[in-house]
Design a protein that fits this description.
- This protein is mostly helical.
- Helices cover 75% and strands 2% of the residues.
- It has helices at 2-10, 12-31, 41-57, 63-70, 74-77, 86-101, 103-109, 113-144, 160-188, 193-200; strands at residues 146-147, 150-151.
- Helix 2 (12-31) runs antiparallel to helix 9, helix 6 (86-101) crosses helix 7 and helix 8 (113-144) packs antiparallel against helix 9 (160-188).
- The chain is flat and about 55 Å long.
Length: 201
Amino acid sequence: MFQTLRNAWKIVDLRKKIFYTLFIILIFRIGSAIAVPFVDTGALADAIGLAAATAKENNTANFMDFLSMMSGGGFSDASIFALSITPYINASIIIQLLTVAIPALERLAKEGVEGRKKLTAYTRYLTIGIALLQGFGYYTWINYYNNNGISMLNVPEGYGVWAAIVIIAAFVAGSAFVMWLGEQITEFGIGNGISIILFAG
């Protein structure tokens, strides 16, 4: 195995792809640590810690821990990559199921490269739609959930609507960027980009 790795390292093109993939993973990890504006990350961490303690006390699964794990810790930090790659995965599954159910999409899938390009575009549009829904849901949760009366938002007076738009837009943009990072790994790096992003998370 080590001999195979050494031989692979000697190939310049392969070495560049490895470095490129590692660089994309580094960007993903940095983005997972940058919080969106207007969110009190300390209050959010306390609320998620309280939920974890309650789940442990009741011997139940903690859904917040699962969401945070899927996003590489971004969910619990309200980072710009909090939604991670899940909207893209959901969109891909939906498009694949619809390809079987809708004849027009089935014809596109059989048209070769051009058809697959159109299906990829539909998957991207659906990803943005799902990210909007999930971003709105996440914002609603942090807006209305209080941890012993402590709000998880830090919004100046009169900026409520603007804060909501900025938070949701940051989540959607982060999800779209993660989708793009995954596609870059697939095209210029090593392996399936979406799987590598999930692994990096």
